[in-house]
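Annex B.
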Amino acid sequence: MKMISKNDMKERNRMSILKTIRSGVCSRAEISAALGLSKPAVSALVDELIKEGLVVETGRGDSTEAGGKKPILLDFQADVAMIAAVSFNNKHYEIALVDLLGVVKFYMKKKIRIYDDYRQTIDLIVQGIRDLIQEARAQGQQQPVMACGIAVRGLVDTDKGIMRYSSAMPWKDAPIGEYMSQSLDIPIFLENDARAGTYVEMLNSNGNYRDTLVCVSVGIGIGTGVVIGNEVYRGAFGGAVNLAHATIDHDGPLCRCGNRGCWEALASITAFGEELSRRDGKYAELEFGEIVSLYREDDPIVADVLLNYTGYWLGIGIATILNVFNPEQLIIQGEITQAGPELEKKIIEVVQQRVSAVTRRSQIRFSEHSEKLQVRGAAAIISNHFFSDMYHRMIWQ
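ROK family transcriptional regulator: predicted structure tokens.
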């Protein structure tokens, strides 16, 4: 058994203290009681965090019942540094500068060109990051950009920063992380976009999912992220829980993967638009936001397809996920949440008809954090790593 060194123990205690402060304003004494650490040890580590700018004293709290001095309160300094966050597909790319708790400070979205040589496309994104940093500097934001997170559709090797495969890109085994790191001189972390969206919910929960959480991201495609014991599950080769191409209707429409009746081909926003166009060609050129506006104006065709087609098939797929994982919560993310509570209600209704009594206890809800989901997910990857023992020192130097 490997012995834990004093330095390792100090780092663990430091991270425990930092995460405790992140979860809410508190005093040194409260940290000591919560973590079972001595007050001198807590004070020494807190002083170190204050010196680094990660923690700030915010004033004095109330006295205890025993009286004495009012405790000095501590808070996490989320804007001490910024995270660069990138999301891209075959249509556009998004870049943001985000604080350590996921608040977007600067943002841009542009059309993208996918070259056969991945480096030419990545060069465009790198220049976009530099432009956004320059804009931040011009507005007086001088914090360092400490790392960059990238969220992208497809199979990725998160450890090596390699995009293995994506149906939206012509690249195979593209070492995007290494290439961008050389260009920007900061650590780069690459992640599948569905798992990146899952990190958003984890960040906003402060680690309150004690058992299992499932996130289903519904946009151009469908992605699924699963959290077990506060860890995102990836599988042996990074392709776990890829349910978008599970067959749920053998006679269903042809999917871009070549099979018929895949969940994504029935329940994604792309599938929603295609079914609408089959009903009436006038919907073919409309963006999803425009279609949602028609739904809110009581367009009967839109309502029927949204609730009785897309909502139905989303419910069928989600019921399968619940029966497999039996999570505390399943959160639906992405553009689809713009449709509102009637669609959420329809999905839950379909699910409840198809799951066991135990699984019915799982809470299903639309996310409250779907705006700019993918780019915020890319930032949440870095935030999660920042608060981890494994990656903290790599990011925060």
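The chain has a mean pLDDT of 91. Residues 6-76 form a domain with the Arc Repressor Mutant, subunit A fold (CATH 1.10.10.10). Further annotation is deferred to the next reporting cycle.
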